[in-house]
Batch of 2 targets.
Target 1
Amino acid sequence: MFYCENCKYLNNTSVCGFCGRTGLRSPVAEDFCYLTEMDVSLGKMLKEIFDAENILCAVIPSGDGFRSSLALPLGNYKLFVPYRDYEKANEIIKEIFENNCSALKKELLENLGKLHFSGKTEKKCRKKLKLSKETNFLEFIKEKVASAEKVFDAGASSYSSFGRYINVSVGSWTILIITGTWEIVSVNKTE
Ligand SMILES: [Zn+2]
């Protein structure tokens, strides 16, 4: 493992995959390493969990230029932990992520009846997916969602002022839904 002092990324080779710096050194226990970037609320929750586990965690706000230009609070946190706790911190994230998935799926299934989409989205998706006129698109999507294999939080929605994106995947299908309004915003299928 190699450590980039410039951007705090851990790399598998001596060249930083993020900034391109060469001749990276091996990490030492005290090096703060980039762990993940997440939504402010999840980031805060994670920091509290790390505090409880005695893992030092540095948090730096990060966000897109659009939010910055409007002087809105930055949307994301970048989290850093010392190299000695890097693996443990990753394990914790993995665990939370998995718990979060099953809770989200439950919430989604409880709100299955509220799913809807705009006429524009339906038209676009029907065309893209080459669905026949006879197919009831909403019922079709509901069936997909009900048998979802993976459900994960895809971050705060920039599309609606409240709510979050939920990414649902089943087979080669990916469906993006906004919580709260339960609007389906996109449906994709990989060949
Ligand atoms: Zn770098």
Target 2
Amino acid sequence: MDIKVKIKGTGIYAPKKVVTNFDLEKIVETSDEWIFERTGIKQRHICSTEGGEWPSDMAYHATLDALKAANLEPNDIDMILFASVTPDHKLPNTACILQQKLGITNKCAALDIAAACSGFVYGLNMATGLIKMGAIKNALIIGSEMLSREINWKDRNTCILFGDGCGVAIVGANEDASDSSDVLSLHLGADGKGKEFFDQPVGGAVEPITPTHIEESSHFMQMKGREMFKVATRTLAENARIVLDRADEKLENVDWLIPHQANVRIIETTGKLLGIDPEKVIINIDKYANTSAATVPIAMHEAITDGRIERGQLLLLDAFGAGLTTGATLLRY
Ligand SMILES: CC(C)(COP(=O)(O)OP(=O)(O)OC[C@H]1O[C@@H](n2cnc3c(N)ncnc32)[C@H](O)[C@@H]1OP(=O)(O)O)[C@@H](O)C(=O)NCCC(=O)NCCS
């Protein structure tokens, strides 16, 4: 029997501190006009470094809202998939930290996913497989990032682009025969050839951080923006076609495209390549900037709570990120 998979509840957490483009004008040579024209970003949220807004804390708050929306208890969760490139610690994984914060005592599986901006979609698709084979009933998928820790705030090529935040979704078996909610098709992939387009080689086993790295600020994230731009548009458009083909669906039937929010021009170019009505594309990069694994669930949650996304509609989630990783999901909400 085919088990249907439903998004039962979502939640987000945006750190309290907001940093506008005008604030950035004071620390690097840039302007609100340049940032907005080239990226669509107006502001970003930044986590407190005093505590209370670590990636696991943001996920905790967002999950409480998602549980409420799903009408579930913490112990109903059978698996936690925590997508982040900025985990709380190296060990233990942040999924385990979150399990404990949520008071989950059922010993559910807890795993971190390192797939950069595609991490949430990776988690959603992997959980879908496990639910459809009957191995688990409910999974908590998280994208939670504190990128402000890994950004060189003196580098205008990167610091203007990113923000902190968290989005989560609880997905589970849909046992109601009259309910059409289901994941219809999915795609996951990666191309390691593009690894140098967006990386952070210092700080791992190969090259631990030394005082020299800190002096030279070479331990932060580094990006080749133009290369990422080109790959991103091509990949997002390809992904959308793949999941539509796999589900034998037509683009015109998609109610909402929810793309990774890296740059509004990437999103618009992807939309044009696909030929989708711009009104059907969810964009909120102006408020949050690029929050990596969190952009897709934050955008989806906002559109659900403000009433744009309704039950029964066809959603296409589409992401790409460092690696280069990529993934898409076509689902009936
Ligand atoms: C980074 C990005 C916004 C740069 O936009 P762009 O239009 O490609 O801009 P360029 O890099 O060509 O730079 C154009 C000029 O603006 C300057 N510039 C770069 N950053 C600037 C900033 N923050 N403020 C003002 N000027 C800036 C450059 O130095 C360059 O000046 P020059 O022409 O005198 O050399 C864009 O390439 C991008 O968004 N790429 C994708 C990034 C991405 O997706 N990353 C994450 C993937 S998950």
